[in-house]
Amino acid sequence: MVIFIDDRPIRLMGPKAAKDLQQATDGSFTDFDRILDARLEALKPSWLEGHLLVLNATPITVEKLVHLLNTNKAENLQSVTMITLDKKAAEEKFKSLYKIIKAAGGVVFKDDEMLLMFRRGKWDLPKGKLDSGESSRKAAVREVEEETGVVVAINERIATTWHTYTLNGNRILKRTKWYLMTCVNDSRLVPQADEGIEELSWVSRKKAQLLLTNSFSSIRYVVDAVYQEQPEE
Description:
β6 and β7 (113-119) form a beta hairpin. This protein has six helices and twelve strands. By secondary structure, it is an alpha/beta fold.
């Protein structure tokens, strides 16, 4: 599970997945600036720098991290990876600290070009909240068509993202399921102005990666997941 807090990835991993982080030769972790063993030392603001790895995290550690991130700017923090023996319990603790809102969206392709939208100063992908009783797949198609005017065929699910924000004093955790889509008809391509969408553009892989430097980490995460399945020629 990856949660984006203030556009920074917080990863919760079990012991098996954690083995992939370790250097094969000596079993050490090499891609982190700081490593904390939660059994030996408490998490505190001074640890929130660079790429942080927390070993032996518990649900209490998760709650402490969320509290610290909500009360400290942590401007130098880039990511947190938490390795826990009980990943499910850690995830449930994280979810319990927020009100969960469910959403869905799509990565739409026409031939080899991806549809991007420019909204509120950043490049983005079409997405939106589920209506009552609506499935994620139906919501994803509806939101794409409402926000862009493009008629699509929906394919497989790409990824699920989680990101946090505050609304009316409430801490919100938004779960978004993302689907790969194919353009069926874009003759009515038009940005949904009342949703703050200013521009729609079909872009190549190279241009998408350039434009998405001005986007959100969660959006880049989704696009990277798409392109991992499509090696560059």
